[in-house]
Specification:
Helices cover 87% and strands 0% of the residues. By secondary structure, the protein is mostly helical. The longest helix is centred in the C-terminal third of the chain and has 44 residues, at 92-135. It is elongated, with a radius of gyration of 21 Å.
Length: 139
């Protein structure tokens, strides 16, 4: 096996590992968002809405947005995989289209991947702010 072939095998292994880690991370964040929303619903199911619950509403909104970004990220990864299949075909027109789609969905995937975490953190901060309002008697 030549050095070039070994490097290619190592690269494929690294790409496979990175993909698995990103998938696990995405699904973990999705689970955290759904759990946070469920906890919030359970926590407030017997209370009437008040003005002091506005930060809590923002928290739920941000968690929903995080969940949506995670779902879009998964869809983008599926589209990138389809584009890569087109690139590997012998037809030059399909390969060109595959390259175009690959760039498009990779950009979108990166954006959704990053915003999934940002929205999660914004939701957590809003939830903490809401809890602080309750603890300090500002409700």
């Amino acid at each position: 096996m030549s050095d070039r072939e070994r490097d290619r095998d190592n690269l494929e292994t690294l790409v496979e590992r990175l993909t698995k880690v990103q998938e696990k991370y995405t699904y973990f964040i999705l689970a955290v968002c759904i759990s946070s929303i469920a906890y919030t619903v359970e926590l407030t199911k017997s209370t009437k809405p008040t003005v002091s619950m506005i930060p809590l509403a923002f928290a739920v909104f941000f968690w929903v947005m995080s969940f949506i970004c995670g779902c879009w990220y998964i869809l983008n990864i599926m589209s990138v995989t389809r584009a890569n299949i087109l690139i590997l075909k012998d037809d030059p027109d399909q390969a060109a289209y595959g390259h175009h789609m690959n760039r498009k969905y990779q950009r979108k995937g990166v954006i959704n991947f990053n915003w999934q975490f940002r929205f999660l953190i914004l939701g957590v901060l809003c939830f903490i702010f809401w809890r602080a309002l309750i603890l300090f008697g500002q409700t």
